[in-house]
Amino acid sequence: MILQEVVLCATAPQALGSGSGAIVLHDVQTGTSLASFKQSSSAPHCTSFVETRDGQGGFILAAQQDKSILNVYNFQKDQLAFKIVLPERLSCIALDNAGSFCAGGTAQGRIYLWEVASGILYNSWDAHYRHVNVLKFTHDGAALISGSDDSGVSVWSVARLVDNDAQNELPTPYCTLSDHTLPVKDIICGLGAFPTCRVLTASLDHSVKIWDLSSQSLLTTFHFPKPISSAVWDITERSFFAASPDGSIYQVNLFRQRTEKHAGQTIEAVGGAGVSDIIRVADEDSNSRKRLISVDQPITVLTISLTSSLLLVGTATGLIHIYDIASHQLLRTISTHKGMSISHLTTMLKPPDLVGHISLSLNLGSSADAKDIIPIRPVVPFHRMKDSKAREAHEVAMMLPVQDETPGGIPSAYDYPEADFQRDHAFFVQPNAIGTSEASSARVAELEAEVENLREQLGKAKGINDVMWETVVQKIMTQEKQKAAVEGQNTTVPGEGEDENDVERPRKKGKKTESKK
Fold this sequence. Notes:
With about 525 residues, the chain is α+β, with helices and mostly antiparallel strands. It has eight helices and 31 strands. It is elongated and about 125 Å long.
């Protein structure tokens, strides 16, 4: 099964020095553990990954929370690939979708930008006055967005950061989003190419703000009764969820239905009036209570499934709660990491080269042959200082796209018949209707046995029904015959076509005349 959604979570000990966490992949439908990458303890926003695609295996980066070390893992091996010694301890990291650049922020407000394939440190600069909490690349990788304890959000153009002619100049942001009053704890980038995309920021000042980067303006402010530490945005940007540290999750719909006299029911966007547009979300409001999820545990991270039907909530106690977004019903809880803290949570398609779960379509003799079919994406130890010579002798290992006719190429792993694709697509969009391959086989056998039993019971019921039908028909026919016989006797005794009273009357008259004589 190729289209299988999995959950990637990172754990860390609740107290520093009390053990080591791990990075684990779970099946989103059953919660079972598929793979585990140990010897990692990363803080929130300190884990990032690149999926297996374009003929190259994916990898995971995890900045350790107690040392200036960056752990590197790949999906083909459940052991630590290698460690990268960093210039200083990082407070957050981010990878662009292509896996080309890695950015890291520090507690002193400094940001580093490396090229993953060469390890070259392209830039390092003082971006904020205080602790950098979160870094995010836009979906096209053209911009880097940073949020800090100084309540500021800065947008940096990656093209300017890697420009050789501007290496001796202090980088200036494309724009600064400065309307928050307390530390910014989370940033979500909407779809679209920079700068046409929108950005959502969450802060401890009880607010979530939506920004338009093309106009560099604030669109709407949503004010909540509690501080907001994490948020997640639906991929279609129809709604978002905001979580407070005490365990309250608020759902905010960005579109509403309005009824007009002449136009009927119409759908309109919520907010968009600018700085003065403040929408308050109150606990006392009946509509707000309908959109409130209470977890009763400290929340560390939120994410939404690929189908936008499930909300996954990571807690500081190591539990992962999975809710149905439409009904807010708790479907299941993954309690494998109880006693730890969930620091990272996201969903992805199961990698075809995942250790212990190598895709059968790759035609491999063993899991050790996976690296020959899907070579690991190159990750080089990062430089600790800027090196102009390394930039001049810039060399990057690249892989040309594999053609379809090339035997053993990665496209064959995703190139399968239409019928199989439709089956996998049905499994992906309707996971409750079809189980996993193993569960499906067991379920089919169970259903076949149940069908056989029902057929046997149906045969017995049909036999009983036939007997009852024969009995009822025979009884009714007998009663009809008896009734017809009685009616026949009654009609022949008095005389045919003669009323019984008419026969009795002359007899009575005759008796009277005889008595008179």
